[in-house]
Design brief:
The protein has about 575 residues and is of the alpha/beta class. The protein has 22 helices and 20 strands.
Amino acid sequence: MKITGAKMVIESLHEERVDTVFGYPGGAIMNVYDEIYKQNYFEHILNRHEQASIHAAEGYARSTGKVGVAIVTSGPGFTNAVTGLATAYMDSIPLVVISGQVPTAIIGTDGFQEIDAVGISRPCTKHNYLVNKIEDLPRIIKEAFHIARTGRPGPVHIDIPKDITAEVGNFEYPKEVNLPTYKPTVNYNKRQLKKAMIAISKAKKPLLYVGGGAILANCGHEIREFAKKTNIPVVETLMARGVMGHDNPLLMGMLGMHGEFSANMAAYETDLLISLGARFDDRVTGRLDEFASKAKVIHVDVDPASIEKLVKANYPIVGDLKVTVDGMLESLKDMELNDYSNWVALLKEYREKEPLRYIDSNTVIKPQWPIERVGKILGNKAIISTDVGQHQMWTAQFYPFSFPRQFITSGGLGTMGFGLPAAIGVAKGNPDKVSINFSGDGSILMNIQELMTCVQSNLPVINIVLNNNYLGMVRQWQTMFYENRLSETDLSIQPDFKMLVESFGGLGYRVTTKEEFDAALKDAVDKKRPAMIEVIVERNEEVLPMVPNGHALNEMTLIGDLNE
C-alpha cells in the first residue's frame, strides 16, 4: 500500500507490537505526530522534557524487558535527548529513539533547529541512521528494533527529515532482517567452556561475580541454579541487584566502592573469579591492579569487545549469557567439584562480623530508615527507581530486592534526574506494581517537571525525597577528602516541596518523624495518585562502607572507623 513516511513510522511500530511511546512533539516531527493523533495502536505519553522521554522509555524497557520507544523533534529536542541516550548506552538498555530532522534540502545550511543528530548520537548509541529515501524507512525501523534487542542490547537512533515523513511511498514491512556484518555471537565455544569448568572443579575459593548482563539476558533463574548446585558464593554489582534475591544464603552482597565488607573481601580473596555479564567498572573494582589479584578469571560476555578490556581473562567466553550458563549447568552432570563449604562459611563469618548497618536515632530520621521501611511494608510489591547520589547507594544497600528488574537505576553514566521519569516508565509498564522513586533534594529538581506527566497520564508514581539540604555525595567527598571545604553543595535554599507537588495536582507530604512517614506512605499507596513524600533526614550521614578512590577493595572505610 502507498502511504506517507509518517504513516510508515506508525505502521512499523505497530508491526513491532509497541504498546507505549514516550515523547515530545516539535516542528520537524509534526507529520509523525499528526499520524499519532489518528492512530489507536499504542498509547503516547507526553513528557515535559525530551531527556525525560528517553529516561521514561528506559524505565519501561529496564522493568519489562521490552524495547523502549521515544520520539523527539530536531535541534534542541534531540540534543536534550542525548543524556538519555548516553545513559541507556552505558547500561546496555534496548531503545529505539526517533528524531525529526529538517527537510533534506536544508541539511547542511544551518537551517532553523538543524543539528547533526547522527554525528552527535554516534558515540552514545549502538547504531544510528539518517533516512535519505522513503523506501528505506520500513527496513531501517525493522533493523533498529533487531539491533536494539539482540547481542549486547543498546539504544538505536533514527533521524528522519521532515520531507521524508511527508513523502508517499510503498509500504511493506520486512519479515526478516538481512545484516551480513551484524552477527552477534549466541553460542559459546565448547572447548573454552570445558576448560573453564575444569578450572571451577579445581578451585578452592571460586566466586560468581554477577553483573547487569544477567538481567538483560534473563538468566537469573539459571544463575541461582548454578550457585545452588555448586555451592559457590555470589556477589552482585549495582546493576545486578535482585538477581539472587536478598535472602539467598549464597549471596554475599553488593561489591564495589560502597559494597559490603563480605563481598569486597570475597573478591579480594577468591582464587577463581567467574564473571557473568559484568563490565569490571572502576566503581566496582577499586584499584584495578589489586582487584581479584589472587584469582584466575573466567569472563563470560556477549560482547567480545568487553573481554579483557580492563582485566586479563584466563578463560574468555563469548556468548549469550543464558545459553552459556545453561551449558555450565549441563557440564555439571559429568563433574566432581571441590567442597566449598569452608569458603562459604568464611564469607558468612565476614558478613556477620561486619554487616551493613547504620546507627539509628530517636531524634532525627536517618536516610537509610525510610528505605528499609518501604522494603518491609511493600517488599516485592514495588519496583524501585532511584536518582543518583547517596540515596542511590543506600537504596542498593538496604532495600530487600527479591527479583531481577526490581531495581531501576542509572549505573554507568550516573545521571541525576533519571529517577522520576524512569519511574513513569515503570508505572506504565507494570500497572500491577507500586512504582517508587527514591531521590535526593538535588536530583529531584533536575526533572521535577515530570510530575505534570504523572498527573496528566494518571500514573501513581510515589517519589520519596530524602532531603538533607545538600548535594549529599559530593558533600561526603568534600568532607572526607577535601578537608571539609563544602564548595557549592549546600542546598539549604529550597522550594516548599509539598506546595510544589500540590501545584502540579499531586499529593504532597512533608515528614519529620517515623510515624508521619508511615502515615504518608499508607495514604499515598491507598490513593493511587502521583505523590511526593519529602523526608527531612540527618544532614551529615555518610554512605559506608566506602573504598576511597585509588584504593583496593580490602581497604574499606567502615562504619566503625567514623561513627563509633
